[in-house]
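Private note to self, pasted from the team thread so I don't lose it. Backbone tokens:
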């Protein structure tokens, strides 16, 4: 798996990051007491 990261298309990386951020926002806000 290591060393294969460069073979993955940049758009797939970007989409994965967006999903992680989207699903991480709610628990982070709850931890910080924003809600």
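Design output:
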């Amino acid at each position: 798996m290591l060393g294969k990261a460069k073979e993955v298309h940049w758009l797939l990386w970007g989409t994965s990051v967006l999903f992680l951020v989207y699903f991480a926002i709610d628990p982070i806000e709850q931890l910080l007491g924003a809600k």
